Every structure is written in C-alpha cells, then in structure tokens.
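During data preparation, we tokenized the protein backbone, and the record follows.
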Amino acid sequence: QVQLVESGGGLVQAGGSLRLSCSASGRTFSRRAMGWFRQAPGKEREFVAAISWSGGNTYYADSVKGRFTISRDNAKNTMTLRMNSLKPEDTAVYYCAAALLADYYSDSDFGSWGQGTQVTVSS
C-alpha cells in the first residue's frame, strides 16, 4: 500500500501559477505510475495528468495540455504538478493517485489516493 499526501494548493489569480506536490510513503513507489485528478463542486472527478514509473511517459487531459507539467523524483518519493496560466475553471480539489501498474492505461488503474488539496483560481 502506498500512502499519499498532497501539498501546495491555495488561492491564485487567473493567469497565475501553482505547484502541487505529492509525497509518497510505503513500498514500491518507483514501480507505479502516478497521476493527478481533480474534482470541482458538483462535478465528477476527472483525470488531469499521469506519469509512468520511469518518468519517460507523460499524459495530460486536453484541458491542461501546454499549461500543466507533471514530473516525479523516485529517489525522493515525490511527484509534482506545475500549473501555469491558471484559469477559473481549474478550480477544484486536486488528488494525487498511485496506479497499480508501471504505466498509465486507464483511470481505473489508480488504487491509492491522497486526501486532496484545494486549488482556487479567481477571475
């Protein structure tokens, strides 16, 4: 089992930037793909970005492509989501997740979740 803790959320104006971090503990962090999801009020949770265990493959939702960057440091058991050019529609609770496999194939691959961190973008 992997335990995940997010940090770095907050309030930012539209056009601004934030960096979210996910710290993992437990076994086999480096053998798992990792991802970020988000859930806005009244909406279903949606995929944001994912990264393979090696860091060689990255995946993004169309809505964040070109603005968000996902990365990981397996030596430190951490994952980061750099968010630039933030928009009010990016407002949501952001969740860190660990997959059961080494690469990302489906949203259903993720079996471990953090508690979430709030990101609010004001217009």
